[in-house]
């Protein structure tokens, strides 16, 4: 009988590779193979590691903590992954807070091996999560990692598999790519397997985006991963079938689509309002599909809807917000906004995101989108939407609005804006937008710095004015947590990636790594990763037992890209970009570089 949490890790000298290169981190120089030996011990005893490298010992002790507190899968590849994550060193950011270009180049050269090992550790984490999903949940939509069950919240079409594909391609994880490519042609997108309504928005960004991105990648720098000559044709055919099946969503008096679709009746509720993000985050994917098919019908539908949202109309009793900033509910029968309450977060976020990304996709065809984006960013910067907490004037958070009234509440979702503003600054060659974006990135990362787990919460609030009832937490960190959960979201990692690509400042690599370490340490459970209920308690509160597909599409991807210097797909540092990332993190080839 083997004790469930009693194992001795011994790095046996006879198994060590003595030909370690000098650039290898100290904790990995001698570790190539290791033995796993079961030994009885009490749950409170420490792991003994017979190895001369102290960092490795600390790493194994860290794993012991994980084993004691979570249902850790004791497979050798998972143990090695945990060692990689636990013991790859961090570089003290105080030595490089304001590096010049020459200093940065030298610093990056000296630490390139560390970045490579970090990227490998993140890839191992991705593959660990994939293996758990494939073993226990595939081809269902999601994994419930604590009890190895499955869920179908995205109509039972295998959301995790399709959403994970572009990340697996970028990481060149051949077995994952092959498994997903074998599966996608078998999906029947004409019926909802779960019997639930189909979300036009979620289906577009996860399924349609995942398949189209894979086409671009496999027809481009990753041709060697294509499993057959015709696989990209099969992907486009499936994307066509899915989009064609959802076309009836646009059969409204205004052409602004409904979101929740009944595939059994081809119907929807005309009285249900939609948000700017719901109806305004289709245009990139559907335009890309049109370009691949040489069929303008898909692009025309979404571009017509986008134009109506951009030129917003308001009901007579609704006060218009600031120029370029919108309400959150649109009547699809009239095209009018029925409220003036909005934000850069839930319900609106990716509408603003796609205004500048469509310009990146084709700067000639979508220049008016860029103009609307500039208007929205300037309104946010000039009208108090970006606020500074009273106890931390160095921080800037994007607030919400109701008409012209500003409400100091923000969210993890809104933290995408830092990276988005940086991207806009890059392609418009406007340093002001880049600096504004960097302020947001730095501030959003502070929400990670502030918590016990090192992970940022879903929502928070603050005040611009001094008040007597300040908590000690607020005095120190500049915000109070209102929603303490973490749902495996990518937005902070995403913005850290853009910040690193724009500046070359390795502190953003370092912050990204720290965030990933915290997520790995707190959210990894059983056969995968779970959302948690409280980022400000040591164990993350409780596990929700649900692993979102966007963990694969975005969270792993942006963490990996920040470290993977030699990736074939990256955000460029200049006006011309070769790729643009969708709101789900799927990279598309831009028109102008084809």
From TrEMBL:
Entry keyword annotation includes Hydrolase: yes
GO CC, one annotated term: membrane
Binding annotation for Ca(2+): 583
Annotated EC: 3.2.1.-
Lineage top rank: taxon: Eukaryota
Signal peptide: none
GO biological process, alphabetically ordered: carbohydrate metabolic process; ERAD pathway
Keyword Calcium: yes
Enzyme class: hydrolase
Annotated disulfide bonds: 415-444
One Pfam family linked to the record: Glyco_hydro_47
Keywords: Calcium, Disulfide bond, Glycoprotein, Glycosidase, Hydrolase, Metal-binding, Signal
Catalytically driven reaction(s): N(4)-(alpha-D-Man-(1->2)-alpha-D-Man-(1->2)-alpha-D-Man-(1->3)-[alpha-D-Man-(1->3)-[alpha-D-Man-(1->2)-alpha-D-Man-(1->6)]-alpha-D-Man-(1->6)]-beta-D-Man-(1->4)-beta-D-GlcNAc-(1->4)-beta-D-GlcNAc)-L-asparaginyl-[protein] (N-glucan mannose isomer 8A1,2,3B1,3) + 3 H2O = N(4)-(alpha-D-Man-(1->3)-[alpha-D-Man-(1->3)-[alpha-D-Man-(1->6)]-alpha-D-Man-(1->6)]-beta-D-Man-(1->4)-beta-D-GlcNAc-(1->4)-beta-D-GlcNAc)-L-asparaginyl-[protein] (N-glucan mannose isomer 5A1,2) + 3 beta-D-mannose; N(4)-(alpha-D-Man-(1->2)-alpha-D-Man-(1->2)-alpha-D-Man-(1->3)-[alpha-D-Man-(1->2)-alpha-D-Man-(1->3)-[alpha-D-Man-(1->2)-alpha-D-Man-(1->6)]-alpha-D-Man-(1->6)]-beta-D-Man-(1->4)-beta-D-GlcNAc-(1->4)-beta-D-GlcNAc)-L-asparaginyl-[protein] (N-glucan mannose isomer 9A1,2,3B1,2,3) + 4 H2O = N(4)-(alpha-D-Man-(1->3)-[alpha-D-Man-(1->3)-[alpha-D-Man-(1->6)]-alpha-D-Man-(1->6)]-beta-D-Man-(1->4)-beta-D-GlcNAc-(1->4)-beta-D-GlcNAc)-L-asparaginyl-[protein] (N-glucan mannose isomer 5A1,2) + 4 beta-D-mannose
InterPro entries per UniProt: 6hp_glycosidase-like_sf, Glyco_hydro_47, Glycosyl_Hydrolase_47, Seven-hairpin_glycosidases
Residues at the catalytic site: 202, 349, 458, 491
GO molecular function, one term: mannosyl-oligosaccharide 1,2-alpha-mannosidase activity
Cofactor(s) in the UniProt record: Ca(2+)
Involved pathway(s): Protein modification; protein glycosylation
Family: Belongs to the glycosyl hydrolase 47 family.
Name of this chain's protein: alpha-1,2-Mannosidase
Species assigned in the record: Aureobasidium pullulans
Taxonomic lineage: Eukaryota, Fungi, Dikarya, Ascomycota, Pezizomycotina
């Amino acid at each position: 009988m083997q004790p469930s949490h009693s194992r001795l890790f011994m790095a046996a000298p006879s198994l060590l590779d003595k030909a370690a290169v000098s650039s290898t981190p100290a904790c990995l120089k001698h570790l190539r193979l290791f033995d796993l030996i079961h030994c009885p011990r009490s749950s409170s005893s420490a792991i003994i590691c017979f190895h001369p490298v102290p960092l490795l010992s600390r790493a194994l002790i860290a794993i012991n903590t994980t084993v004691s507190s979570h249902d850790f899968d004791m497979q050798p590849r998972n143990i090695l992954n945990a060692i990689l994550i636990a013991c790859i060193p961090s570089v003290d950011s105080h030595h490089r807070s304001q590096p010049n270009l020459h200093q940065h180049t030298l610093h990056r050269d000296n630490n390139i091996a560390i970045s490579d090992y970090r990227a490998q550790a993140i890839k191992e984490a991705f593959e660990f999560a994939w293996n758990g999903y494939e073993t226990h949940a595939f081809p269902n939509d999601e994994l419930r990692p604590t009890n190895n069950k499955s869920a179908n919240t995205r109509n039972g079409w295998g959301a995790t598999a399709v959403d994970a594909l572009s990340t697996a391609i970028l990481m060149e994880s051949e077995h994952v790519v092959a498994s997903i490519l074998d599966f996608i042609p078998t999906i029947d997108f004409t019926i909802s397997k779960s019997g639930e309504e189909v979300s036009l928005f979620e289906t577009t960004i996860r399924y349609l985006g995942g398949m189209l991105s894979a086409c671009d990648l496999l027809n481009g720098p990753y041709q060697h991963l294509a499993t057959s000559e015709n696989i990209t044709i099969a992907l486009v055919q499936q994307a066509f079938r899915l989009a064609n099946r959802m076309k009836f969503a646009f059969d409204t008096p205004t052409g602004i689509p409904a979101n929740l679709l009944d595939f059994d009746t081809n119907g929807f509720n005309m009285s249900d309002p939609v948000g700017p993000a719901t109806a305004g985050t289709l245009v990139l994917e559907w335009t890309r599909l049109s370009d691949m098919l040489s069929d303008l019908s898909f692009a025309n539908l979404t571009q017509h809807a986008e134009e109506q949202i951009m030129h917003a109309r308001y009901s007579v009793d609704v006060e218009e917000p600031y120029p370029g900033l919108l309400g959150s509910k649109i009547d699809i029968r009239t095209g009018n906004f029925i409220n003036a309450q909005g934000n850069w977060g839930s319900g609106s976020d990716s509408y603003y995101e796609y205004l500048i990304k469509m310009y990146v996709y084709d700067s000639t065809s979508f220049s008016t989108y860029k103009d609307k984006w500039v208007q929205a960013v300037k309104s946010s910067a000039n009208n108090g939407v970006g606020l500074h907490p009273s106890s931390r004037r160095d921080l800037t958070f994007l607030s919400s609005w109701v008409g012209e009234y500003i409400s100091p509440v923000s969210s993890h979702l809104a933290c995408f804006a830092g990276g988005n503003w940086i991207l806009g600054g890059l392609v418009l060659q406007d340093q002001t937008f880049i600096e504004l974006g960097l302020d947001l990135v730095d501030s959003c990362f502070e929400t990670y710095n502030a918590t016990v787990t090192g992970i940022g919460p879903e929502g928070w609030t603050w005040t611009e004015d001094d008040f007597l009832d300040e908590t000690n937490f607020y005095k120190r960190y500049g915000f109070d947590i209102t929603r303490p959960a973490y749902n495996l979201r990518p937005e902070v990692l995403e913005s850290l990636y853009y910040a690193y690509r724009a500046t070359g400042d390795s502190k953003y690599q370092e912050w990204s790594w720290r965030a990933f370490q915290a997520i790995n340490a707190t959210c990894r459970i059983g056969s995968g990763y779970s959302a948690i209920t409280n980022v400000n308690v040591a164990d993350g509160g409780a596990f929700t037992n649900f692993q979102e597909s966007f963990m694969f599409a975005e969270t792993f991807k942006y963490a990996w890209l920040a470290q993977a210097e030699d990736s074939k797909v990256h955000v460029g540092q200049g006006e011309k970009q070769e790729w643009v990332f969708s709101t789900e993190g799927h990279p598309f080839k831009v028109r102008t570089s084809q």
